[in-house]
Write a structure and sequence with these properties.
This protein is an alpha+beta fold and about 180 residues long. The chain is about 15% helix and about 30% strand. A 7-stranded mixed barrel has the order 1-6-5-11-8-7-13. It has a 3-stranded antiparallel β-sheet with strand order 4-3-12, with no helix packed on it. A two-stranded antiparallel sheet has the order 9-10. Strand 5, helix 2 and strand 6 form a beta-alpha-beta unit.
Length: about 180
């Protein structure tokens, strides 16, 4: 797997679809992004809290590849880092091709373990009408393809800034493909 770069970091202490960009974010082991509404040991996304608030939070950090923004721009959609609610925007890593359990070393200290795919929701169309169809599609076999990034948990905390390197550490084989979390 190719290594990449952090291009932006974002967080928000209140529930909103987008997250403002920051000069840095601090990842907290076992919790997520310091000060972000989705940080916590148990689920924080409203729909999941309604189902079972005691479930573990496998969505502590949301990462999106900047290449997605390039792709949707070709279809006429202006999307920038933080717009889709991600915490870390990357470039140079094929996030969607990573297997479950991949460890992403962000900057000097932080390590995030990939837990699965983000499940894009209708709020994306509220942000930009028609965008949901750009980030959810079907492959040649008709299987659903989710392109709105990946989710992870923080194994090792640390500060993450734009420009930080990303080192990809694949898990032992056999690799398990990403599923929605």
């Amino acid at each position: 797997m190719d290594d990449g770069t952090v291009t932006a970091v974002s967080s928000n202490g209140t529930y909103s679809f987008t997250k403002p960009n920051r000069e840095s974010i601090t990842l907290l082991a076992g919790l997520g992004v310091d000060g972000d509404v989705h940080a916590g040991v148990t689920v924080r996304h409203r729909s999941r809290v309604a189902q079972d608030p005691t479930r573990p939070n496998l969505r502590q950090v949301h990462l999106i590849h900047a290449e997605l923004f390039d792709e949707v721009a070709e279809a006429g959609f202006a999307v920038t880092p933080g717009d889709l609610g991600e915490n870390v925007t990357t470039r140079g890593v094929d996030l969607l091709a990573l297997p479950t359990g991949t460890r992403l070393h962000l900057g000097a200290e932080a390590v995030v373990e990939v837990t699965g795919l983000r499940n894009p929701c209708a709020q994306i169309d509220g942000f930009r009408h028609g965008l949901l169809k750009q980030v959810v599609g079907r492959d040649a076999d008709g299987a659903l393809v989710r392109k709105a990034g990946i989710m992870g948990i923080v194994l090792t905390g640390g500060e993450v800034r734009p420009g930080d390197p990303i080192r990809v550490e694949l898990p032992a084989e056999p690799h398990r493909p990403l599923e929605r979390v």
